[in-house]
Specification:
The structure holds 2 protein chains of 2 kinds.
Chain A: E1 4-7, E2 10-13, E3 19-25, E4 31-37, E5 43-49, E6 56-57, E7 64-66, E8 76-78, E9 87-94, E10 105-106, E11 110-114
Parallel strand pairs in A: 2-11
Antiparallel strand pairs in A: 1-3, 3-8, 4-5, 4-9, 5-6, 7-8, 9-10, 9-11
Chain B: E1 3-5, E2 10-14, E3 19-21, E4 24-26, E5 32-38, E6 44-50, E7 56-58, E8 64-68, E9 73-78, E10 87-94, E11 105-106, E12 110-115
Parallel strand pairs in B: 2-12
Antiparallel strand pairs in B: 1-4, 3-9, 5-6, 5-10, 7-8, 8-9, 10-11, 10-12
The chains are: A mainly beta, B mainly beta.
Chain lengths: 115, 116
């Protein structure tokens, strides 16, 4: 089955530790995205990548880092510099970046809790 | 500034009743419009989207939405809800011809509860 997988589903970390969230897609999509979701708020874009070895900061990139070494993978690292990392993190991908019918497909999410 | 507003934080309707979720946007031109649904603890699933053409858009799971330029609205409707429709619903807008995810704006969501 084609889709986007995120692991783990739940993640607990101590304050001050870096943590990496996994996102893999087998849809052969070029673009991938990371969003953060907090209760009562919409999604906020952290980073996105249009092609392999290239990525751009979104609206709330501070305290986060990403890499895009493979087309199917876009891991997100939440660093100790992120002031309030506890949140629900969503990964998405889209088949191409330019065009009128781009649609983003979302993974199931990872809930990160920092203790 | 561009924005999207979902005025209702939480709505409860009876099973079998009709549903309308409101979405208003502020944009310089007619944007691309989307509705997504999110079940608890899950990712988002696209229900429908409007880019151009017929202002009444049909989506999955029996949902439809109508784009009204004069009201800057894109309300989501369903004639008869099912218990499985209980979820969070997000409206989103993007500039026409957008080619970057950084330009997509999501509303804050409306949580739908279904009364048996």
């Amino acid at each position: 089955d084609g889709g986007i997988t995120q692991s783990p589903k739940y993640l607990f970390r101590k304050e001050g530790q870096n943590v990496t969230l996994s996102c893999e897609q087998n849809l052969n999509h070029d673009a991938m995205y990371w969003y953060r979701q907090d209760p009562g708020q919409g999604l906020r874009l952290i980073y996105y990548s249009q092609i392999v070895n290239d990525f751009q900061k979104g609206d709330i990139a501070e305290g986060y880092s990403v890499s895009r070494e493979k087309k199917e993978s876009f891991p997100l690292t939440v660093t100790s510099a992120q002031k309030n990392p506890t949140a629900f993190y969503l990964c998405a991908s889209s088949p191409r970046l330019a065009g009128d019918t781009d649609t983003q497909y979302f993974g199931p999410g990872t809930r990160l809790t920092v203790l | 500034a561009q924005s999207v507003t979902q005025p209702d934080i939480h709505i409860t309707v009876s099973e079998g009743a009709s549903l309308e979720l409101r979405c208003n946007y502020s944009y310089g031109a007619t944007p691309y419009l989307f509705w997504y649904v999110q079940s608890p603890g899950q990712g988002l699933q696209l229900l429908l989207k409007y880019f151009s053409g017929d202002t009444l858009v049909q989506g999955i799971k029996g949902f439809e939405a109508e784009f009204k330029r004069s009201q800057s609205s894109f309300n989501l409707r369903k004639p008869s809800v099912h218990w499985s429709d209980a979820a969070e619903y997000f409206c989103a807008v993007a500039p026409p011809g957008y080619s970057s995810a950084s330009k997509i704006i999501f509303g804050s969501g409306t949580r739908l509860s279904i009364r048996p």
